[in-house]
Amino acid sequence: MNLEIDDDVEWYFEERTLDRPDRGCWEWEGSFHGNYGIAYIQNKKVGAHRLSWMLHKGPIPKGLWVLHKCDNTSCIRPSHLFLGDNDDNMADMLLKGRGRYREHLGAETAEQIISFFIEGASISDLAEAFDCSVRAIRDVINRRTYRSRKILGYDPPI
């Protein structure tokens, strides 16, 4: 969804923007849904970070998301935002140590797991060796986790 940007939209955005020099972020001071800022523009609800992108960089291509470099979900500073798809979002989340397996697994560990699996290690042995569940190992092997990474040219079995 892209909006028609006019002076009223720009004013609405600026009135709800707080510059945080200590963090380098511009933080949204309007409404929130969960941790994300929400703007109400032209009878539509839009993420504040998406509005920022549209105001400063232009339309958002269909199928792409506006992601945060800074990991501050209330940040709306254009230089802290980038476009990506769901796979980019998942890879970014995992590389920054967030998400479902953050306690045990990281990108390097996933590469090791896949390497050992290719060499013939069983899933249960890998789960024991990496101190995690069989499901976590299966998710790595089947690229439900780390799916956007091209790990050793590996194609998952499923």
Radius of gyration from the alpha-carbon trace, in angstroms: 20 Å
Mean pLDDT: 82
Number of strands: 7
Largest sheet features: 3 strands, antiparallel
Helix content: 25-40%
Run of helices and strands: HEEEEEHEEHHHH
Apparent shape: elongated
How many domains is the backbone divided into? 2
Descriptive overview:
This protein is α+β, with helices and mostly antiparallel strands and 158 residues long. It folds into 2 domains: 7-84, no CATH class; 102-141, no CATH class. It is 35% helix and 18% strand. It has 6 helices and 7 strands, in the order αβββββαββαααα. It has helices spanning 7-15, 48-56, 86-95, 107-118, 123-129, 134-141, and strands spanning 17-20, 25-28, 31-33, 36-41, 44-47, 65-68, 81-84. The strands form 3 sheets. The chain has a 3-stranded antiparallel sheet with strand order 3-4-5. Strands 1-2 form a two-stranded antiparallel ribbon. The chain has a two-stranded antiparallel sheet with strand order 6-7. Helix 5 crosses helix 6. The longest helix has 12 residues, at 107-118. The mean pLDDT is 82.
